[in-house]
């Protein structure tokens, strides 16, 4: 029995509310159970310096967690004067994931920055950030196309992410914190809407896993990805 009472292959309740920020070119609030992330997209009219005069655009991300997103207060990283290694790793992951679904030539020489701010954390914040970040990106690109700034849609496919792991000896989909903190194996699966893999992060947490177990987790991730892409489509209408 999972702590939440969910079935082994059951996602937490997912909701995506779009256009929640007045000034952002694209924004959404994604809720995956008790994990809530505010995602926004900002269009900048020039690419980073290393892409100047290449004709290519760029998608990047920044990630942060509010002090009381967790059970006890976490000090703001700005107060410490630097980002943690975990924060840097997560925002690079979000950027890599979203760029995999973009034709950077069609985007042109501009940059879209995706900001993911965790309001409340209960496991799976990076997966929720990627899934919601794609929706914010899609909305920003829609605005560029409507304004005639770009003529060819640079979005190649949906991008979504979900966690899977081995909890109490059973493969489960979409771990919450109670499961993630004690899972024998934990993995994050980032995929396109067509089911192609972008990135897989897997590690044993005190118990090794077999190739067959990894296959079962991948099967769960594919099913979860299908449900998340459906949620993205429903939110966008």
Automatic annotation (TrEMBL):
GO molecular function terms noted in the UniProt entry: 3'-5'-RNA exonuclease activity; tRNA binding; tRNA nucleotidyltransferase activity
Amino-acid positions noted as binding phosphate in the UniProt annotation, renumbered to this chain: 86, 124-126
Keywords: Nucleotidyltransferase, RNA-binding, rRNA processing, Transferase, tRNA processing, tRNA-binding
Domain of life: Bacteria
Matching CDD domains: RNase_PH_bact (cd11362)
SUPFAM superfamilies: Ribonuclease PH domain 2-like, Ribosomal protein S5 domain 2-like
Gene3D superfamilies tied to this protein: GHMP Kinase, N-terminal domain
Record field: catalytic activity: tRNA(n+1) + phosphate = tRNA(n) + a ribonucleoside 5'-diphosphate
BP-aspect Gene Ontology terms: rRNA 3'-end processing; rRNA catabolic process; tRNA processing
One Pfam family recorded for the sequence: RNase_PH
Keyword GTP-binding: no
Documented EC number(s): 2.7.7.56
Residue intervals of the Exoribonuclease phosphorolytic domain: 10-140, 159-223
InterPro entries: ExoRNase_PH_dom1, ExoRNase_PH_dom2, ExoRNase_PH_dom2_sf, PNPase/RNase_PH_dom_sf, Ribosomal_Su5_D2-typ_SF, RNase_PH, RNase_PH_bac-type, RNase_PH_CS
Keyword Repeat attached: no
Assembly with partners or alone: Homohexameric ring arranged as a trimer of dimers.
PANTHER family: EXOSOME COMPLEX COMPONENT (PTHR11953), EXOSOME COMPLEX COMPONENT RRP41 (PTHR11953:SF0)
Function (record text): Phosphorolytic 3'-5' exoribonuclease that plays an important role in tRNA 3'-end maturation. Removes nucleotide residues following the 3'-CCA terminus of tRNAs; can also add nucleotides to the ends of RNA molecules by using nucleoside diphosphates as substrates, but this may not be physiologically important. Probably plays a role in initiation of 16S rRNA degradation (leading to ribosome degradation) during starvation.
Similarity remark: Belongs to the RNase PH family.
Protein name as annotated: Ribonuclease PH
Species of provenance: Aliigemmobacter aestuarii
């Amino acid at each position: 029995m999972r702590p939440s009472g969910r079935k082994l292959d059951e996602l937490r309740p997912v909701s995506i509310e779009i256009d929640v920020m007045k000034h952002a070119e694209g924004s959404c609030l994604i809720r995956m159970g008790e994990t809530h992330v505010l995602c926004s997209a900002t269009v900048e009219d020039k690419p980073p310096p290393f892409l100047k005069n290449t004709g290519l655009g760029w998608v990047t991300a920044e990630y942060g967690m509010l002090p009381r997103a967790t059970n006890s207060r976490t000090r703001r990283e700005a107060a410490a004067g630097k980002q943690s290694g975990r924060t840097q790793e997560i925002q690079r992951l979000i950027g890599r994931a979203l760029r995999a679904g973009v034709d950077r030539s069609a985007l042109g020489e501009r940059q879209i920055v995706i900001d993911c701010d965790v309001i409340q954390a209960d496991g799976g914040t990076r997966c929720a950030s990627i899934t919601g970040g794609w929706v914010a990106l899609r909305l920003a690109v829609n605005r560029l196309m409507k304004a005639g700034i770009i003529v060819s849609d640079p979005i190649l496919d949906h991008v979504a992410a979900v966690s899977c792991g081995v909890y109490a000896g059973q493969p489960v989909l979409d771990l919450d914190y109670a499961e993630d903190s004690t899972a024998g194996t934990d993995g994050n699966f980032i995929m396109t809407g067509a089911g192609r893999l972008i990135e897989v992060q897997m590690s044993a947490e005190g118990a090794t896993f077999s190739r067959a177990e990894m296959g079962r987790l991948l099967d769960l991730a594919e099913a979860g990805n299908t449900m998340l892409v459906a949620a993205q489509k429903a939110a966008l209408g």
